[in-house]
Design a protein that fits this description.
Helix 1 runs antiparallel to helix 2 and helix 4 packs antiparallel against helix 5. By secondary structure, this protein is mostly helical. The protein has six helices and no strands. It is flat and about 50 Å long. It has one domain. The two termini are about 20 Å apart. Helix content is about 75%, strand content about 0%.
Length: about 160
């Protein structure tokens, strides 16, 4: 659910930099992907195997990653403002969100987090290097939604 909210947030926050027709198209697309994903998860659920509660270490990793994510976004934003490149903040956020997913794969034994994190890290770095931060944030939002839909459809084996 958090990932789907993130996907919608990225698209709706940064699609304004696109032409009106393109902005509307990506907003409709992300909403369609989210509705399809929710449908697959709640209307036509598939078995995900035996529920394994997170360990104390997993919970600690989760909390540490969220705190680290917020700190990195704050420090990175300050650095971008200081360098007079605050327009790159959306790409920084995509990068940091991706980084915070990587330890989740280990902590929760879920490979999809590694794929999701790696994809967002690559998109964030591309956005920073190409100075295309808002476009990358929109692409990241769409990609997150599509990846979560693929997960709901069973394209990622749960281990």
């Amino acid at each position: 659910m958090i990932g789907l909210v993130g996907a919608v947030t990225f698209v709706f926050s940064y699609a304004g930099g696109l032409q009106a027709v393109a902005a509307m198209a990506v907003q409709i697309l992300v909403v369609t992907v989210v509705v399809a994903t929710l449908g697959m998860l709640f209307v036509r659920p598939r078995g995900l195997g035996r529920f394994v509660p997170p360990t104390r270490v997993g919970i600690g990793v989760y909390l540490s990653c969220v705190i680290g994510e917020l700190a990195l976004i704050r420090v990175g934003t300050d650095a971008l403002v200081h360098a007079d490149h605050d327009e790159l903040r959306p790409a920084l956020i995509v990068l940091v969100v991706g980084l915070h997913f990587l330890p989740f794969a280990w902590a929760f034994h879920e490979h999809m987090f590694a794929w999701l994190g790696a994809m967002l890290v690559v998109l964030g770095v591309v956005g920073l290097l190409a100075a295309a931060a808002e476009l990358v944030a929109v692409i990241a939002g769409l990609a997150m939604g599509v990846m979560l839909l693929a997960y709901a459809l069973g394209f990622f084996a749960r281990h």
